[in-house]
Amino acid sequence: MKLQxxxxxxxxxxxxxxxxxxxxxxxxxxxxxxVIKEYGMEIVRQMRKAFPRHTLLADMKICDAGKxxxxxxxxxxxxxxxxxxxxxxxxxxxxxxxxxxxxxxxxVDLLGVDKTEQxxxxxxxGVSFVGLHLGKDEQQHKQLGQGLFQLVEGTGLKTAxxxxxxxxxLPVILPYRPDVIIxxxxxxxxxxxxxxxxxxKKRIASSx
Length: 208
Ligand SMILES: O=C(CO)[C@H](O)[C@H](O)COP(=O)(O)O
What we know:
This protein is α/β, with parallel strands linked by helices. The protein has helices spanning 12-22, 33-39, 42-50, 66-75, 89-102, 116-124, 146-150, 170-173, 185-188, 193-206; strands spanning 2-7, 28-31, 55-62, 80-84, 105-109, 129-133, 158-162, 180-183. It has one domain: Alpha-Beta Barrel (TIM Barrel), CATH 3.20.20. It is 42% helix and 20% strand. The N and C termini lie close together (9 Å). Ribulose-5-phosphate binds at residues 6, 8, 30, 32-33, 59, 135-136, 162-165, 182-186. Belongs to the HPS/KGPDC family. HPS subfamily. One of its GO terms (biological process) is L-ascorbic acid catabolic process.
């Protein structure tokens, strides 16, 4: 299981300072959608330069113009870009095709998806990597739980989990062995981000 640090609702300097601080604990750096909207692809380019050894994910949340936006992310240095599961099949297909041509990866964000059939249909379309996601707004009323993991049960898909993950919620998540655990505010808003990230990394490592 890999640890992905999500950089959301942060300014440029704080994004770089947080990655510098936590770089030994994290495997994947995620440039969040709002940060990309604020600073454009330049922050992806500069993060690539500053941290060449980490896997870099651009959370583009593509929902149209798949070829163009996937190319933008990969040209800026991202290894992985995201496309929304609710995007038209043609858009998802365009992004998968760009990723395959460039030796990169697409993660399909399952935000809003609540039926296993939808996930199975994505797999039939050629999707191999999905992100289970409890959105920031939904987190006010719901918590991460078994229901989300049921969406991918038996599909064999590579899976990430995101949405309010903290040290406290790890016991709910770890038994499902997702390939990637995405943590944003659980680290970025912690009093000591480095310690929080190290703690999470150790818990992941000791879970087997
Ligand atoms: O994709 C996202 C928001 O759309 C976030 O990256 C994801 O939800 C992780 O952040 P947090 O742990 O703060 O919920």
